[in-house]
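Fold these two proteins, one after the other.
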Amino acid sequence: MGKSTERFKTYQDVFDEFTNQTLFKLITQGHFDGLIGPVSIGKESNVFVCKKDDHKVIAKIYRLETCDFNRMYDYIKDDPRFAGLKKHKRKIIFAWAQREYRNLLIAREGQVRVPKAITVLNNVLVLEYIGCAEAAPKLKDSLPENPQDFFEDTINNIKKLYKAGLVHGDLSQFNILNLKEKPVFIDLSHSTPTKNHNSEELLARDMRNVCNFFRKLGLKIDEEKIKKSIK
C-alpha cells in the first residue's frame, strides 16, 4: 500500500477532502492501486488513468464544487430510476454518477461498444481503460481512415443502444473514441430511457450531431432515412 499511497498523494491537492477519502476507499477496496495521471480535466469531471496490478483502469471523478447540478437535475428528474430525488447538490451528483454506471451496464448488455463499468462510489466512477499505451483519442482528434465504415459502425451502435432501451442524449465527436478505427461511446450520464418524454428529441439531436460531423468528412447522408432505421 506504500507505493499506492504515495502515488495517490501526488494528486491529493487536485481534489476536495471528501473526494480524497472516496478515492482512498476505492484503493483500499482493491479497485486500483493509485492514480497515474489525468486524461482530461474539465469543469464537470476529471478523468484519470489509474494503475491496477499490471494493467490500467479509469477513474472518472465528478467535481463536487463546479458541477452544474441544476442541469444534471433537469436531466435526471424524469428518469423513473431516480424517482423522488430531492434537489440536493451532492445527492444529485452522486445520482448522476450512479446513472452513468447503470447506463453503461445496460449498454454493455446490449452489446454496445462502451467501456466496462467496474464500480461507482459517491462521485467517482471506475471504468475500463480504453486504449493501448496511450488512451484512445476522441473522434474529433483522430479522424477515421474510412469515414463510411466508421459512420455505419456508429449508427449500428446507436441502434443497439436504442434496442437496449436508451438514447445517448449527448452524442458527438467529443464523446466517441476512435479505438483502432472502431467507435467507442463514452459519457453516458446523459443517456435517457427511450420511454421518457424527451427521448425522441434527444435522439434527433444525437443523429444531427453525428450526421453533420460525417458530412464534413465528405459523406452524403439521408438523416431522416437513417433515423427511421434506428427504431
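Now the second one:
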Amino acid sequence: MNEFSNPFRPLAALLLLYALAVGVLMFIWDFEPGQFDVQANANALARAGADTVVGDVTTAALIGVLNTVLEKRGGYLSNDIFPPGALMDNIPLWEFGAITQSRDLVRALRNDFSRSQTQSTEDDDLIIADPQLHFDTESWILPSSEGEYRTGIAALERYLDRLSDERNPDAQFYARADNLRDWLAVVEKRLGSLSQRLSASVGQVRINTDLKGDIAAEQSKEGADSLIVKTPWLEIDDVFYEARGSAWALIHFLKAVEIDFASVLENKNALVSLRQIIRELEGTQELVRSPMILNGSGFSFIANHSLVMASYISRANAAVIDLRNLLAQG
C-alpha cells in the first residue's frame, strides 16, 4: 500500500502548501486602507511651482481615492479569477462602494463643476475620465478594469495639471452653491439606498410610498400596498462592506469640498452642517471587533452590525438634506 501511495505524497504536500499560502494571503489582503490627508495629497499631486486654485483639492481627492483602491495591500481584487482574490468578497465589495462614489463625483466634475452653464462645452479630459471610471469592475483582461481606471486617472491628472496652469483658461472648476447642491442630491440618493439595504438585514414590512406627494402621479406597474423587504443572509456582509467603502471615499470628497467650497459654505452658514456629515460618516470606519458581520434581530442578545452602520448612514443622509436646504437659501 505504501509503495502506491508514496508518489502522491509530494503532490499532497504541494497542495497543502498552496492552501496555506492562499490562507495567509487572504488574511494579509483582507485590509481596508486608512484615511489620507486631502490637503497633503493635493500638494503632492500639484504641478511644481503652481499656485493653489479652487478645485485642486477635490480633484486630487478623487485621484487619491482611486489610486488607493488600485494600489492598496493586495492591489485591486474585484476582478481576480484566481485565489486568494477570487475567494474574497468583503474587500471587493468595499472597492465597489468606493468606486461608485468616485463615479458620481467624476460625473459631477464633467457635468457641473467644470462648466459655467448648461450651454458651455465639456472639458476634454473629463470626457475621457467619466466613461473610463464607469467601466465594468470585474473585467480581468482585454481590457482589465485596472487598465481602464488608470486611463481615467491619467485624464484626471491632466485636468488637474491644466487647472492650475494660468496659461490654460479652458480648464475650470466652479465652486458654486448650485453645483454643490446637484452633487449632494446624488450623494443623498446613494446614502438613502444604502441605509434602506442595511436596515433590511432584519426584514421589515414597509408601506409603499412610491407616489406620495403627487395625486396625479402614475407608475408603469401597480405596486403592492405593503412590501416585505429582507436582505438575503449571504448578502448581509456584502451590503455592509459596500457601505463602508462608499463612506470611506465620501469622507475624503467632503473634506475636499470643505476646502474648495469654503467661501460658499461660510456665506450660507453651512460649514458646521458639512462637518456633521463627515463626523457621522467617520463613525462607519470604526474597527469591527468581530470575526464576522453579525445579524441579530433589532433588540436581540447578538449584535446587528448592519443596523449600526445604517444608523450612521441615515444620520449622515439627514444632514446632507439639511445642507442642501441651506445651500438653496439666498
